[in-house]
Design a protein that fits this description.
The chain is mainly alpha-helical. The radius of gyration is 31 Å and the shape is elongated. The two termini are 58 Å apart.
């Protein structure tokens, strides 16, 4: 009867395969496709009535086109309303950014984790001894590297 084979402890397990990195063009294409799919899903939900349609984003430049009937009656009032909507959109945008922003303690934790992760990695170094640097090719290689 043969003994059960045991793997030697000195050999490290084979590292997992490296992930495939996408080119810049592929990343852009993937991002564009996912955004388009997400937008189509949102439009479908609006069409079926699950979510309400967003109100039009009226700006000063397109105010007359979007609110043609109202704008011709009292343009000053409509312009003030449009400016108020623009200010509200900007305020909401800034609030969302503030909510997403990390607190001081979270920033500190992230920095500490990053430092710990950097110290875990081993640094491999190669040393070379060059006796003579009169050859310009050797001097260039030392300067560059």
């Amino acid at each position: 009867e043969h003994p059960v084979p045991i793997e030697p402890p000195s050999e490290a397990p084979e590292p997992p395969p490296l992930p495939m990195f996408l080119t810049k063009k592929e990343r852009k294409k993937l991002r564009r496709r996912t955004r388009m799919e997400r937008e189509l899903q949102r439009q479908e939900m609006v069409a079926r009535g699950f979510i309400k349609a967003p109100e039009p984003k009226v700006k000063i430049s397109n105010m007359m086109r979007v609110l043609s009937a109202d704008a011709s009656a009292d343009p000053t009032k409509i312009e003030a309303e449009v400016k108020k909507q623009m200010a509200l959109r900007l305020k909401n945008h800034n609030e969302r950014n503030q909510a997403r922003k990390k607190t001081a303690s979270e920033k500190r934790e992230k920095k500490l984790e990053k430092l710990a992760k950097e110290t875990e990695v081993e640094t491999t170094v190669h040393l070379y001894k060059v006796n003579d640097l009169t050859n310009k090719q050797n001097r260039y290689k030392v300067d560059v590297n």
